[in-house]
Amino acid sequence: MGKTPAKGTSGAKGSSGRGQRDLTVRVKTAKGRKLSSKLWLERQLNDPYVKRAKAEGFRGRAAFKLIELDDRFHFLKPGARVVDLGSAPGGWAQVAVPRVNALGERAGKPVGRVLGLDLQEVDPVPGAEIHVLDFLADDADRTVKDWLGGPADVVMSDMAAASSGHKQTDHLRIIALCEAAAELAFDVLAPGGTFVAKVLAGGAEGELQKRLKQAFEKVENVKPPASRSDSSEKFVVAMGFRGRPADGVPDGGPDGEADGEADGEAGGEAGGV
Ligand SMILES: C[S@@+](CC[C@H](N)C(=O)[O-])C[C@H]1O[C@@H](n2cnc3c(N)ncnc32)[C@H](O)[C@@H]1O
């Protein structure tokens, strides 16, 4: 568990996209094919991150997105207190627990904490404390702070609304979730803390980026290899929390394109992992 997957191994990246359906038919109809070729074809057909998730005991391929983000930015430090927003089915919590030492098993390492929240029940993740909570409920901020009992070092959100199938609607919904997550982060993060959130590339994210650039020393937009290449999903990683930004951003302030990748790709994977 917790190994970094090889970069660029996603099936979506390594194939034409058209090929997956074609290959599925060939495997189903092939007779007398050598086992090695069948296995080879099956491997091409199946998303390697899905297979790795199964093999490594993760609850979904989303776990690898967090692994790749943390291997690059190193925010899940031993002893860190982490809020995991939208944690079902628990893959990100599974990744975070050993990295922050939330089980306290590694002698000499400070013991961290992982607090997960989701609309849905989540099977227990050893070392994590996970609650059913609509993050957008009126008193959610206070509830989270009470459960946390102190400041957080990391607020991370993989939240997504169920896909409507309408790209702009999905974009607006996920930006609204991300803005709400950022507001919570402004309330609960300790100085120097990190905010990580899934967004969909599109027109409404500029204001969010401006606020994050005010509140954090560094803001990066990245698409980890485990994020499907045909999705407009990306992740904003804001590091070095300075404090809640003033309301409103003056004209001529930082624009909406952080260092990132404006992938501009069509996609509707708002609920996808
Ligand atoms: C893509 S899944 C998260 C996957 C998770 N990071 C993992 O690795 O297993 C997105 C989750 O966000 C949750 N979500 C969406 N809106 C929410 C809200 N208002 N409050 C809490 N959770 C929410 C959904 O219920 C869903 O389980």
TrEMBL record:
<dbReference type="GO" id="GO:0032259">
    <property type="term" value="P:methylation"/>
</dbReference>
<comment type="similarity">
    <text>Belongs to the class I-like SAM-binding methyltransferase superfamily. RNA methyltransferase RlmE family.</text>
</comment>
<keyword id="KW-0963">Cytoplasm</keyword>
<keyword id="KW-0698">rRNA processing</keyword>
<dbReference type="GO" id="GO:0008168">
    <property type="term" value="F:methyltransferase activity"/>
</dbReference>
<dbReference type="InterPro" id="IPR002877">
    <property type="entry name" value="RNA_MeTrfase_FtsJ_dom"/>
</dbReference>
<feature type="binding site">
    <location>
        <position position="90"/>
    </location>
    <ligand>
        <name>S-adenosyl-L-methionine</name>
    </ligand>
</feature>
<comment type="function">
    <text>Specifically methylates the uridine in position 2552 of 23S rRNA at the 2'-O position of the ribose in the fully assembled 50S ribosomal subunit.</text>
</comment>
<keyword id="KW-0808">Transferase</keyword>
<feature type="region of interest" description="Disordered">
    <location>
        <begin position="242"/>
        <end position="273"/>
    </location>
</feature>
<feature type="binding site">
    <location>
        <position position="134"/>
    </location>
    <ligand>
        <name>S-adenosyl-L-methionine</name>
    </ligand>
</feature>
<feature type="active site" description="Proton acceptor">
    <location>
        <position position="198"/>
    </location>
</feature>
<feature type="domain" description="Ribosomal RNA methyltransferase FtsJ">
    <location>
        <begin position="58"/>
        <end position="241"/>
    </location>
</feature>
<dbReference type="InterPro" id="IPR015507">
    <property type="entry name" value="rRNA-MeTfrase_E"/>
</dbReference>
<feature type="binding site">
    <location>
        <position position="158"/>
    </location>
    <ligand>
        <name>S-adenosyl-L-methionine</name>
    </ligand>
</feature>
<keyword id="KW-0949">S-adenosyl-L-methionine</keyword>
<feature type="compositionally biased region" description="Acidic residues">
    <location>
        <begin position="254"/>
        <end position="266"/>
    </location>
</feature>
<keyword id="KW-0489">Methyltransferase</keyword>
<protein>
    <recommendedName>
        <fullName>Ribosomal RNA large subunit methyltransferase E</fullName>
        <ecNumber>2.1.1.166</ecNumber>
    </recommendedName>
</protein>
<dbReference type="InterPro" id="IPR029063">
    <property type="entry name" value="SAM-dependent_MTases_sf"/>
</dbReference>
<feature type="compositionally biased region" description="Low complexity">
    <location>
        <begin position="1"/>
        <end position="15"/>
    </location>
</feature>
<dbReference type="InterPro" id="IPR050082">
    <property type="entry name" value="RNA_methyltr_RlmE"/>
</dbReference>
<feature type="region of interest" description="Disordered">
    <location>
        <begin position="1"/>
        <end position="30"/>
    </location>
</feature>
<feature type="binding site">
    <location>
        <position position="92"/>
    </location>
    <ligand>
        <name>S-adenosyl-L-methionine</name>
    </ligand>
</feature>
<feature type="binding site">
    <location>
        <position position="118"/>
    </location>
    <ligand>
        <name>S-adenosyl-L-methionine</name>
    </ligand>
</feature>
<dbReference type="Pfam" id="PF01728">
    <property type="entry name" value="FtsJ"/>
</dbReference>
